[in-house]
Amino acid sequence: MAHSPLPASGPEGPLRATPPGRGPAPVRAVLFDFGGTLFQMGTYADRIRSALGRRVGDPEMDRILDGLETGLTDPGVIEAQRGRDVSSQAHRHAFTTWYASVPALAPYADVLYEQLRAPEHWVPYADTGATLARLAGAGIALGVVSDVGWDLRATFAHHGLDRHFGAWVHSYAHATEKPDPALFEHACRELGVAPAETLMVGDHPAKDGGAAGAGLRAYVLPAGAALGSHRGLDVVVRLAGVDADGSGGGDTC
């Protein structure tokens, strides 16, 4: 049987009592998801107008966006999403298949995909930079763990944020996807920290929250943040035990 980093538990809780005075280890590292957590893509309407290179009125745009929504239920599109993030090829195929499910976008599917990879099309949330600076300034090691089909370092560098990170774990480079424990464990090794000392932050309950199965703590952000708005990342600073003056804290979450 594979070893688990978590204590053995029955239906009611851990089988063995926690020794007195032994609480959670201080957080020494924070891992972040990318899209929907630190960055958000520009609006589909803006991207489509840019790709088509012409004026697209609201009625036509509504039809195109309705087509993309319908495409999400298309059997061929659904099938293309399986294993989407395990390789660069699979990632491109998944997205271009979806774009091409709308006849008006089919000739521009590759253009839309290249937008997805372009650093300038991604927008950091309003509190991303300050949050990363506070964590790094307090000596918290930072890493990125993302289900993605390309290297994200150029996007972070474009926005002057790459300097904060000591580990970059891209799913396509490991031929697997979150919540595979291997991705979280690899990031912890890169940062030289134990899973129990690490917090994973993302926006997907099953994928990012799955870090708990690898022995990490996990915080899942709520959905629905507007483009360029505050993401609520100040909570992460508190969970990492960073004090108001920027110094590190003690026991957390």
UniProtKB/TrEMBL annotation:
Question: What InterPro entries is this protein classified in?
Answer: HAD-like_sf (IPR036412), HAD-SF_hydro_IA (IPR006439), HAD_sf (IPR023214)
Which residue ranges does UniProt annotate as crossing the membrane?
Answer: none
Residues of the region (Disordered) are 1-22
Q: Sorted alphabetically, which Pfam families does this protein's record hold?
A: Hydrolase
Keyword annotations from UniProtKB, A to Z: Hydrolase
GO-annotated molecular function: hydrolase activity
Q: Which NCBIfam families match?
A: HAD-SF-IA-v1
Name this protein carries in UniProt: HAD family hydrolase
Which organism is this entry from?
Streptomyces apricus
The major lineage groups are: Bacteria, Bacillati, Actinomycetota, Actinomycetes, Kitasatosporales
